[in-house]
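Course assignment 3, question 2. Fill in each field.
Student: A.L.
Task: Predict the tertiary structure for the chain below.
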Amino acid sequence: MSQSQTQTAGQSLTPADGSRYSVSHVTEYQYSLPVPHSRQLLRLSPRNLAWQQCHASRIQVDPQPDEWFELDDFYGNHLVQFALRTPHTQLTVRVDSQVLVLPHAEQWVAENSLSWERVRQQLANGGTEVLDPIQYLFPSTFIPIDNALSHYALPSFTPERPLLSALLDFTGRIFNDFTFDPTATTIATPVETLLQEKKGVCQDFAHLQIACLRSLGLAARYVSGYILTQPPPGEERMIGADASHAWVSVYCPPYGWVDIDPTNNVLADTQHITVAWGRDFGDVSPMHGIIFGGGAHQLDVQVTVMPQ
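Answer field:
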C-alpha cells in the first residue's frame, strides 16, 4: 500500500459560511489475467483556489507502486504518476480529501458583465490580459467548432446582451432540451451526435456547451470535480451525485472565469468541488494509463461526498 499526503500551502480560508466536505473516491480494476506492468496517471486531488481549499488529500494504491512521482500539469492540476512492475490481478486506488468551499457565485451579477460581442472582440484582439483564456478558444480532441453549434447557441446571444445573462439563458436551454441518460453515450460520442440525439450525461453536456461557446468565439474550459451527495434539507438532489461530475468555466469579464453547470442548470457554487480543468475531458481524466496483459477487466468506481 502506498499513500501520499497533500497539505494546503499558504494562507487559510476563513471557514465562516463555507461548506466543508469529506470526499472519498475509490477506483478498482479486476483483471482476468495477471498484469505484469502498469503505468497510471491520476488527477484526483481537489485544487486550491480563491474560494476552495484542500486541507488534505491522501492517495492510497494497492498493490505497492514501484515508482511514484507528483507534479502539477500545464493547467495547474495536481498529477500523480505511478508504475507497477509486480504481477497483479487487482488494482485499487483510493483518494480521501478534506475540502472547504466558500460561497462565490453571488458575486456574479448577470447584468454587470460585458456584452458577449465585446468579450469576443477582446479575445480576438489578443493581449497579455487574455493570454490564459485564448488557449480555450480553439478546437480540441473532444471539442469541434462548427456552424451548427453556433446556430444552436445564437438564440440566447442576442445583440449587446450581457455575456452572463446570455450564458444563464443558454444553460437553461441545454437543461430543458436534453435528457440525462447514462446509457445514451460513451466518451467517443461526438458532440454533433449529441446535438441530434439530445441525450447524454454531464460530460456530454459540458462538451456541448463548450463547443457552442467556442464556435461563437468565446473562451470556455472543461471542469471536473464532484457535487454534494446529500444536499441540505429542502434542496433537490443533484443529478450526477455519487460520481465524478463535469461542468463549464467561461471567461466572463469583469469576473474572470465563471463556472456554470448545464446538467443541473445552476451556477457552480458551494456544492461543487473543483478537481481539475482543461480544454476538454482528455486534459482532466481522473485516471488513465497503460497496462500489459490483463485480459478482460471489470471497473468499479465509488464516490462519496459528505458534508462535515
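Instructor remarks: The chain is about 20% helix and 40% strand. Helices lie at 116-125, 131-134, 147-153, 163-177, 191-197, 202-215.
Grade: pending
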